[in-house]
Amino acid sequence: MRAWLAAAVAAVLLAGCGSPPAGSGTGRASASASVSVSAAGLRARALALAWRLVNELSPPPGTRPVHLKKLPPPLTEPLPLPPGWVRIEQTLVGPAEPGAAWAGLLARSPLGQTGGISPGVSAGMFIPAPEPGIDVAKITVTLIQLSGKTILIVADAEAAWLPARTAAEHPDPASFRSVTISARRYGEMRDVTRTFTARDVIARLTSIINKGTPAPREVLIGMHCAPVSTVFTLRFTPENPRGPVVVVTIGPCGHAYGITVNGKEQSSLWNNGGLSTTAGGLLELR
What we know:
Low-confidence stretches: 1-37
Shape: elongated
Helix content: 10-25%
Mean pLDDT: 78
Structural class: alpha+beta
Number of domains: 2
Radius of gyration: 23 Å
Number of strands: 12
């Protein structure tokens, strides 16, 4: 990943100060204040990340900021963001040069791996879990030829954080007596399935899940993918018949994995490869 990501600090948001004296009546207010401070801190970090993405672009010499009341076609005004998202947009005008001269525009940003960009073309990328507490970031750059001598650069960066995951989304390894892992390779009709009861295996798998970062639904819907080689399903069976049945599915896209608890869908989590690699190792897939 790029330098800005490697240098990200694993910050810990402090939840608040000590408990108030009994009977003081300020406990609820203190808790609310802590939540507000945490949310404000996450928003500030998301904004800082969005600005960092925009500022890492390297526009050609001669470009300057411009404020437009309306974006020219084919661009449209961006849709309002859902709660928990921030957006930074920057518009620049500059001298029109051959397309190769604009390749440097993306050089230092995550978009550098997409190659060059020509007038009339957009380049964009989602960055899953870019740093602790931030669930996803997105950077998009569009070039538009305004005239024979002038080009417009529109850079848009967004970042999102989601509410803290609920207790139901953190499976307790002690509450399960087994986990059944099924895998189906691309193009095959038969599943490879094994059931494990070892406590260390259950603990290893639930630890990966519990450390996962939520993947916003609106991002997953808009992502394109090529099918992954293997689809996994992990079914955790509870010790107590009345306990929660947790099913984790790493689908054909592989971007994220879905979780249900007693059939109720939970937030999808980004798949960094750890869960599928561990599951594949347990099944001894070759």
